[in-house]
Batch of 2 targets.
Target 1
Amino acid sequence: MAELRKVQLKISQFYPKQSVFNYINHNFFSEENNDVILAERFTKAIGYYPNVQEPKTLNEKILWLSQNYHNQLATLCVDRYLVKQYIKEQLGEDLCFSTIRKYDSIYDVDLNEYPGKFVIKVNWNLGKNQTINVINKDKSSLDLIRAKLDNWTQPWNNLYYTDYNWPYKDVKPIMFAEEYVDKKACNKYKVYCFNGKADFALLDMNCYSLKYKRSIYDRNFKETDFTIGKTSKVQLKTKPQNFDRVIELADKLSKPFPFVRVDFYEIGGKIYFEQFLFGLSSSFSKIKPLEWDYKLGEKLNLPEKS
Amino acid sequence: MFITRIEKPEKTVLSFCGIKFTRKHKKVFMDLYNKNRFYNAIVKNNFSIAERRGILEDRFYKKTGYFPNLNNPQTFNEKMTWLKLYCHDEVQKKCVDKITFKDYIAQILGKEYVIPTIAVYDRADDINFDELPQKFVIKSNCGWGGDQVIIVKDKTKINIDRVRRQANSWLVTWNNYFYQSFDWEYENLKPRILVEEFLEAIDGDVPDYKFHCFNGEPKAILTIEDRFKKGQIKKTFLDDKWNVLPIRRPHSTVNKNVKKPKLFDEMLKISRKLGEKFPFVRVDFYNTDNKIYVGELTFYPGGGVEPFATKEWDIQLGELLKLPDVKEK
């Protein structure tokens, strides 16, 4: 029975999800229902009904931006294959994991082509979703990898259809292989940038261990009074070595945007760039206490509708 | 563009982009998913009268237990389904929308017969709770029965965000009974939010009076009592002289000693006046001791598929109705 359950779980990821529902809505009803669906999702996740016409809190403003702020550069930044070139041009140094090759179709995938471990990804993924770590080549099944990739590149698996987040709308799916880096002892820096300037950062130390804790500091390494998300909060004993450098990098990268979250890895004392996040699908989490949601919202100036 | 609809004699299966949708997927679309309304809405423009007929016949068989003969309709439910498919009068569209319905009644009978409207909204975040009185009722303009109604008895005690979220979920395109039972009046009806006055006298377990007008004559009257007591609901059919008819709906009992309402004669008069324009209409009344309110006009009670305890009564009620002559479209 246990084995049958495992097979069922494996199959279940091929079944339609919320994004398929949204994809159907998008293609058959134009945009008439989008507001209804977004308000429903927002209330469910954050706990209050959003006022989108006059946004005040941070979460409301991010929701507004995801619908009304259209910048072509954001589309490039969200694409995790093309962004590597952009980072190189902006910073003048290579902070990303290096790409091995691009796959044009799922039949190009060959496990023995490259010696050692590697990672297969789709460019519109978020965090560690839609990635396959090829570690043990004897155990991994080529057919399953192909089936997964085929599913992940279907149009409704575009993140645009999770909550109509504009930057993802025109992203075209690209499958590619990347170098493998062991992330067992890995720290994450998630820097929130308002109006082209880093404001505060979430430091997740040992973020791939089971019980990791989160600490939140502003750009001058002063502890903040609020929490974000469900992870419990803890105070750090010493300032991390790379903290100032991360803030500096985030300042450089966030200049063109009113709001963006920039994520970095720290592995073995070295900084790697992970991803840009715009709009809801990224920073869609409860801020406690609620008054801080308003205070942070005040800092963010909205651009004109475009 | 990706859709192919495979028609079988008994079932319609929808496959979309290679995914076959079945009832198992109900859980996936939990929040905004309403039975098969969503699937039907996807293929909304493709429903010709013949297709509607096929799907309705299927639904009819599942609910009532016999297959309808729509070429020669005899029973009450068959005639309801026939009317739904072939007899379309534009005035009915006005009566079905709960917002325009009030204007219609006020035009014919007078303003005192409808529950006064406080406000109408297009979006859930337009609802201004400061403007509203202490007690009120929020409805959608296309809900049925007790569905899609929030009764607010004390404004200070409600959770505003929750009320907004619930009202918001009524506004999706496919939250429309056209896609469930093909009531043609609902096609392209835009869902809106309606706020009404709360009336103490109507609240709670007050009996309902439903006058079935056959060709303008209220020949059968249905009273419903104790609808909030589980398992004790009483549905009684009477004729226009207040004699109990031996008709019974399943899962309910008959109350042989129903009290005659004080304003019975006036109700008869009103239902004659409203019913003369349509081949069949059911007029629902909210009745207090000295006042009558018209609740709604229903053209196809129970969607034309609500079963009776025995088929005999389906046939006997059906004999009362003479169908109009309509050219087949």
Note: Residues 178 and 241 of chain B are 36 Å apart (CA to CA).
Target 2
Amino acid sequence: MSAAGPSFLGLGALHSGATWLHQRLRRHPELCVHHVGRDYRAWDHVPQFALFAETCQQRYGAAGPGQLHGEITSAYAVLGPEEIAVVRRTSPDLRIFYLLRNPVERAWTAALLALERAGMEPREASDAWFADVFRSRASRAHGDYADRLRCWGAQFPPGRFHVLVADDVRERPSEALRGLCRHLGVSEPPATGESTTGLEPDGEAPLPSRLRRVLCEVYRDPVRDLARELGRDLDHWLASD
Amino acid sequence: MDGPDFIGIGAMRAGTTWLYEQMLGHPQLRFPAGKETNHWTAWHGRGVPAAAYLRRFGGREPGRLAGEISPEYAALEPGVIAEVRRHVPEARLFVILRSPVERDWSEALMTLRDACEMEPGEASEAWFLDVLGSRTLRRRGDYLACLRAWRAQYPPEQLHVMLMDDLVERPRDLLRGLYRHIGASEAPADAAPEADLRRRVNSDGRPGRARAGEAWPLPSRLRAHLVERHRGHVEELSAELGRDLSRWL
């Protein structure tokens, strides 16, 4: 284990439950977890990749003896190959978990946030505005989970990955938490009833059917690709209203 | 007494970062809270008291003036400007204006890049029309309405109006006028090396060339749309300032 780098990283899709998960993991006595906001871009703060280890050392200096330290953020999911290679050099024994959410829903949440950042009201954006945002390279990259998994998989062996699908976390939260703890190699928490409050975005405007159809088209192939990758049926992600 | 001696109120995407960089080199001027506090746009509405804003400028230092430049202030609602006046009635105000056609386009490109993580080639004309038509962006580009709202609260001589055209063509004169207005020595404007005055600064404070998308040309149809939108304001503003602004259109 590297002395400087984190022991684990959580790569979360936007509003996939990273905050919810952080609230649970931070109570675990064997873990020291940082949750970094969605707008955090590690490489804006670390202009030279070589400084990553130093930054980690400063951040994780507070971890107690015997604690595994790591962080969860949606910002890491879309790191490029060179950046992921730096992460591997810094933490070669890293354990990674990836929180996935229906990319159709993820893209809608992200577009609403973009609208807010632009100082626009939802009624000021036409379907064409949303469609352009949905089809942009950056938006699609965030939702092409299979491609992201392959990018990380080029640097880390398969046993280091644990995929958490938001649907499962919502339906069986305790089981999802225990599975993650097994992956991280820490004690499993007691199987008590786990609240799912905070898993869903609050008060989000509903996705109109006509825009859902656009998104289903955009994500048809990426979702099927991911379904093959994970060996499970995800067709319900592409179902219309 | 706490509070700013001077406040730059905008306009957004019109050279305020260049002004800030130049003013930072003036020995009499201080920016204790950095370039922008955005208090009146971001924090005032969330209940952060004015006293907290005033404290950010620290106490008076003999012979020195403290202030900030928050480019979104130009488009504040009249009620908020009245609040600014109530708390900092003596502040010297300044604003720099750029062709509103170019300003609007620059803001649209910033929205594209920073808010939406998109490349210019990914946005259709409809996308740009939505952004350019949003209430917030339109308000920021309506200089006449902005100036009138501020002048309704502050005496006209307290608000110094500059043009970005002068920043490009006569930067030394522009700085002299600004320093005179806020009560600082004009000498640093005379002493500034020519290369510093001509240096381009991006909105994130980095020198050098434009960031991706910043130099994306304004398509002629959108230009025609924006020119039509601004024609009336610009002609009125031109008369009000006694400057020929026809090149903005």
Note: Residues 110 and 136 of chain A are 12 Å apart (CA to CA).
